[in-house]
Amino acid sequence: MMKSYKNDKMTYHQGNETNHIGDHMEESQKTKSNIDMLLFETAPNKSNQTNINKKNVGGYGTRLRPLTLTTPKPLINFCNKPIIEHQILHLAKCGIKEIILAIAYKPTNITNFVKEMEKKYNVQIIFSVEDEPLGTGGPLKLAENYLNKYDDFFVFNSDIICTFPLIEMMNFHKQNKAPLTILVKEVEDPRAFGVVITEDKMITKFEEKPLVPKSSLINAGIYILNKQILNFIPQRNCSLEKEIFPKLASDNMLYFYQLNNFWADIGKPLDFLKGQSLYMENLEERKYEKHMLLDHLLIYYSLNENHTKNVVHKNLFVSFENIEELNKFNENEENSFIKDIFLHTKIEGNVLISSTTIIKQNCVLGDNVVLGEHVIIGEGCRIKNSCVMSQSTINSYSYIENSIIGSKSRVGNWSRIEGLCVLGESVILKPEIFVNNAFILPFKEVNNSIYDKGAIIM
Prior knowledge:
The protein is of the alpha/beta class and 458 residues long. It has two domains: 27-265, Spore Coat Polysaccharide Biosynthesis Protein SpsA, Chain A (Alpha-Beta Complex); 269-457, 3 Solenoid (UDP N-Acetylglucosamine Acyltransferase, domain 1). The strands form six sheets. A nine-stranded mixed beta sheet has the order 12-13-15-18-21-24-27-30-32. A seven-stranded mixed beta sheet has the order 3-2-1-4-9-6-10. Strands 14-17-20-23-26-29 form a six-stranded parallel beta sheet. The longest helix is centred in the middle third of the chain and has 17 residues, at 269-285.
């Protein structure tokens, strides 16, 4: 049984019944063909239907606790944008108009966000809510009546950040008339992932997290499924990776498209920071592609010795909440915000800040630092390989390294945080506190230093 939730722009499934969304749209919008937009609809007799993307965002986000104790994992900010928005952005860019979010809990927490995404990216979003966990395959079966209208559809893992080669992958899928295409990526250590053995264009064997991998190619968490694959999925808790993919591989039905650009699974704190670094490296490589930066609501500045003696190196990216703010910012050629950073902040490596971030004098930022919306960094702070999420304050002369600071937190003067620390939402650290490799739950006040590695402050 599937729960039902409604608002003025969304309709959610209930049981075996599927309701359409977008009744408020003009008829011309509802019947517009997407074939000329290079989507993956292939049947000529369905040219009046829009393609669907199914995103598995369910689960409880336990690997990213304590951040997920107050925020559903898809809504956690990654490089100043909710994780799921990175994916929605790329889906919208390639013409996808309808998205299903497979969610295991807290649907009401993301309702306002979904409304915002529908308006911002001109997409329609449906929630598919499970009464009980259904794994990675069960949610597809649950939405079968809806998905069966479309010949092919994307499936995303919500932990994935990459360059999203969706059009290229879609073209490959269509050209090969593939039943199922998996995005794969070569990695140094594949043991934590689904490993694929390939031959020509096909996957001949699929092994989920093997102790001794026979290949360095892994399942990168993005698929294109033909609707016939739904016939292989049972109506119960089911794992695509353990039950469905191995069978399809043995029946020569599993194709792969290899990604050669950056990719990251950001479902754990350490991987989150690594993914953040890769994301900004990709921005740095593409900094001259103005269209790409505008799509991401970013402005790029190269900081070097020529600007000021206090600035050493390298790349500053500024994010904006919306296109109106970006345009207003661009109109102000004598922007004091950027001038102040040039004069008073030392940037080392790649740094991404919000246009609403406040940075006081004599700070050193980078490499790999992200500062969220309305973050305040006090005088003389040193931050590297870390993320400070929205509305947090780091008071003067504090040192933060290899850490994630949750939103609305406050770090006192002369504090030191290092060793892969994660602070939940609204954590308060008193002045002169040392924290080493600790996880601090939301709304906690820390009055004493934490020296024990791996400590969990509840």
